[in-house]
Amino acid sequence: MTTFKEFQAKYTPIINDFLEGQLAKESDDPRFAEIMAYSVMAGGKRLRPLLFLATLDALGVEITEKEVQAACGIELIHTYSLIHDDLPAMDNDDYRRGELTSHKKWGEAEAILAGDALQPLGIQWIAQAEHNWKLVEIITEAVGPKGMVAGQYLDIDTTNNEDSSEEVIDHMEWLKTGCLILASVQMATALAACPDQQAQKYLAFAKHFGRSYQLYDDLVDIVESQEEAGKATHKDQEVGKNNSLTMLGAEATRNELKQLIEKGKADLAGEKAEVLLGFLDLYQKVL
Amino acid sequence: MTTFKEFQAKYTPIINDFLEGQLAKESDDPRFAEIMAYSVMAGGKRLRPLLFLATLDALGVEITEKEVQAACGIELIHTYSLIHDDLPAMDNDDYRRGELTSHKKWGEAEAILAGDALQPLGIQWIAQAEHNWKLVEIITEAVGPKGMVAGQYLDIDTTNNEDSSEEVIDHMEWLKTGCLILASVQMATALAACPDQQAQKYLAFAKHFGRSYQLYDDLVDIVESQEEAGKATHKDQEVGKNNSLTMLGAEATRNELKQLIEKGKADLAGEKAEVLLGFLDLYQKVL
C-alpha cells in the first residue's frame, strides 16, 4: 500500500521535471520562456497535479507520461492565477514563495502576458494529453466566469466591504480555491470513466478538501512567520481582507477544519484511496 | 450564389444575438457579466467568427447553432486580447471602437479579470459546441506562447527599439493578428474533415489573408481620422511603435497588400469560396 508521502516523493520530481523540460520548448523567445518558467518553477507543492494523479491511482488508472502532462497542465493554470492575483491592480504582492513576484521581477506587462500564456498552454497540454474534450470542459468551467475568475472578482469586490456576509465570503473562497481543486479530481473521474456512484464519492471528497484547504491557507497566514510561508503573512487583516478566518476567528476556523477532515475521510470509506486521504494530513501543522 | 455582403448581413446579427444572449448566462454576478459584455458587444466587425463560418460554408458544412457557438468562442478570445492589449501596462489606450476601454470604464483589476474570464470561456464554448479536442488544440496553440501572446510580448519588446529588423516586425505582426485568423480557418477545415489537399488551399488563403489584414489595419491607422476609426489613430508613430508601415512606408505597404490580395485569390482558385474571397474587398478603402 502506497502512502501519501511515498506517492508525493515519487511524483513531485516527475511533475517538476516535466514542467521544466516541456516549458522550455513552448516558446521561441528564450526570455519569455524564462519569465513563464520563473513562476512555474518557484517551488509550489504541486497539490493540484498530485490530487489529479492520486485520484487516477485510486481509480486504477495507470499513470503514464500523458497523465503527467495533463496534471502539469493544471499546475500551469494554477500558476497563471497566482501571477495575476499578485499584480499591482489586484493584491499588489511583492513576494510569492519566498521570491519576487513576476511583475516585481520582470515588469507588469510581462507578468500579465506570462499569465495570459500559461492559461491556454495548460488547457492545450490537457487536450493534447488525453484527446478528450470533456476534460477541457471541466477545466474551462472551473477557471472561467462561474469559477476561479469569479472568485477573484468577488475578492476585489469584498475587500474593505464590511457588509460582506459569511455566506458571500464562503462562496468567494470556494470559487477562488475550491473550483480548481474539485476540477482536478473531476478530470480524473472523467478519465477513469468510473461508475457515477463511485465518482460521486470522490467529488464529495474534493468538495470537502477544497473547502478545508482554503481554511488551512487562512490559518497558515496567521500561524506561520513570514519567512516560513515565503510570502507576506498577517496581511489579510491589515488590508481589510475578509476571509473565513477574519469572520469566524481562529478557534472556530480550526474546529470547522477538523469537521471537514472527518467528512473527507467518510466520503472515501470503502475506496482504496489511502493516498488521497493522506492529503488531509497536510493540515496537522495548523491544528 | 451567396455574396460576402449577403453572408455578412445574415450572420452578423446571428453572432451578435448569440454573444449577447449567452454571455448574460455565463456569470452569476450581474456586474461582472456587464463588464464582459461591455467589451464583447462594443461593435466589432466579427471578422474571425465570420471567417470560420464562411470557411465551413465553402466546405459544405451546414451552419447550425453549435457552429455559431464555436464561432462566438473565437470572438470572446479576440475580445480578451483587445482588453489586455489596452491595459495601462501595455498600450495604455483610453478608447477602443469609439468607447472607453475596459480599464478606463470599470477599473484595471476588473479589465484584467474580464480578459482572464473571456479566454477560457471562449475555449469552453468551442469545446462544448463541437465535442472535438482537435479544435481546442488549434485554438490554444494559436493564442498561447507560440502564438498571439508571443506577438504581444514581442510588441512590447520592440516598441522604441530601433534595431528591430523588418523580419522581427513581420513575425510579431503575424503572431499578434495572423495566428488567430489562421486558426479560425483551420478550425473549420478540421471540423469539415476535408481532404488534406483541399485544406491546404484554405490554410494558404488564411495565411495570406492574415498577413494582409495586419497591413490593412496599419493603413487604417494613417488613412482614417480618429473619429472614423473609433480609437486613437496616428498613434503608432508617436509612441515609437514599429510596424510594417513605419518600416516600409505607405506606398510599399499598399503594394504589398495588393500582391497579397492576388495571392489570396489564387489560393482558392477552383473552390466554391466566393464568400471567403469577398473578405478581400474589405481592403478597398485603404487602397
From TrEMBL, chains A, B:
Domain of life of the source: Bacteria
Signal sequence interval, chain numbering: none
Single GO biological process annotation from the record: terpenoid biosynthetic process
Record's catalysed reaction(s): isopentenyl diphosphate + (2E)-geranyl diphosphate = (2E,6E)-farnesyl diphosphate + diphosphate
InterPro entries: Isoprenoid_synthase_dom_sf, Polyprenyl_synt, Polyprenyl_synt_CS
Keyword Cytoplasm found: no
Keywords per UniProt: Isoprene biosynthesis, Magnesium, Metal-binding, Transferase
Enzyme Commission identifier(s): 2.5.1.10
GO molecular function: (2E,6E)-farnesyl diphosphate synthase activity; metal ion binding
Required cofactor names: Mg(2+)
Entry keyword annotation includes Thylakoid: no
A Pfam family this chain is assigned to: polyprenyl_synt
Family label: Belongs to the FPP/GGPP synthase family.
Designated name of the protein: Farnesyl diphosphate synthase
Naturally occurring in which organism (per UniProt): Lactobacillus delbrueckii subsp. bulgaricus
